[in-house]
Amino acid sequence: MSLNNKWSRKRANLVNEQSDKLTAKIERAQNKLFKYITDTFLPSLETDANEALVPTDKMLFIPSRLDSYYDQFNEEELKPIVSTFASDITKLLKYNQKYYDGVKPSDEHGQIKESVLGALGIADGNITGGSLLYGVISDRSAIANIKSTIMTAISTGLAITALKIILKQTITKQGGGLVKSLFNDRLPDPYVKVDRFIGQKYQVALKLNYAIYQGGTIGTSRDFCIERNNKVFSREEIAKFGTSADKWGGYEDNNGNFQGKTNPYEPFQDLGGYNCRHFLTYISDELAFTLRSELGSGRS
């Protein structure tokens, strides 16, 4: 059971391809951050004959030097990533509009677009201050972590080789890395979550009652998603996902718990839980009854 629609496919491809590209960009960015700190910044620090870091008056200037670099890093790496995402969301809105026009023509597109872009903080292609996206480029937690690590290492006379090991773990590995953690905290699975948000907006505006749980399966797909993949569900059924009232399978127990379930869990936005790339494609009643005949039984 599937939906073979040009715009639905384009939407899904955009989400999957750009999600992968975003992950790659984030990894490159944090590797660049690590390389600068270890190859350029650390050699400027003073050490003794045993390569142990030595406190000097220059310690006073270390925080501001690191802040200056992070400002440059923000301009050259983080802002372009966020700007590309903002541009992609405009394209994602277009693909959704094309798809839902084929489901049920409407004049709600402009209002939905304004609502989605406003929620993200995108105005005339720019990121507005205090918005969700602005939070990514204004967050200073990554450089604060690095500064604290370096200053502690200097004050305790840590060997510079040991500091490099600690920084590699901190910047590129722990929690997936500092930049990845920043995005995960501020904007987790952004393409997936925004596409689901757009779909919900159309579902409400067009009064659509049914959706197909789409996204395919891979070797690491959870039982919850395998059970639901390419099946049609009513809004009432989706609302019961993750609860003991759900009649479908893929659970670890009778309480509605499944592998990867988020806390809190919102079925229309979270679907299969952490890192799930499935999405809901809302469809007309007529198509729903064709794809799953028992839904239309008893209706005139």
Chain-wise SSE layout:
Layout: H1 6-41, H2 62-103, H3 109-120, E1 122-123, E2 126-127, H4 132-138, H5 141-155, H6 160-173, H7 178-186, H8 190-206, E3 210-214, H9 223-228, E4 232-234, H10 235-239, H11 267-270, E5 279-283, H12 285-291
Antiparallel strand pairs: 1-2, 3-4, 3-5
Compact overview of the structure:
This protein is mostly helical and 300 residues long.
Characteristics:
single chain; 300 residues; mainly alpha; three-stranded antiparallel β-sheet; 5 strands; elongated
* Count of separate DSSP helical elements: 12
The percentage helix is: 55-70%
Largest sheet, described in full? Answer: 3 strands, antiparallel
Assembly type: single chain
What is the average per-residue confidence, as pLDDT, rounded to a whole number? 93
Principal-axis shape equals elongated
Order of strands across the main sheet: 4-3-5
The count of β-strands is 5
As a whole number of angstroms, the C-alpha radius of gyration is 24 Å
Order of helices and strands: HHHEEHHHHHEHEHHEH
Structural features, described:
With 300 residues, this protein is mostly helical. The chain is 58% helix and 6% strand. The chain contains twelve helices and five strands. It has helices at residues 6-41, 62-103, 109-120, 132-138, 141-155, 160-173, 178-186, 190-206, 223-228, 235-239, 267-270, 285-291, and strands at residues 122-123, 126-127, 210-214, 232-234, 279-283. Helix 1 (6-41) crosses helix 7, helix 2 packs parallel to helix 8 and helix 5 runs antiparallel to helix 6 (160-173). The longest helix is centred in the N-terminal third of the chain and has 42 residues, at 62-103. The protein is elongated and about 85 Å long.
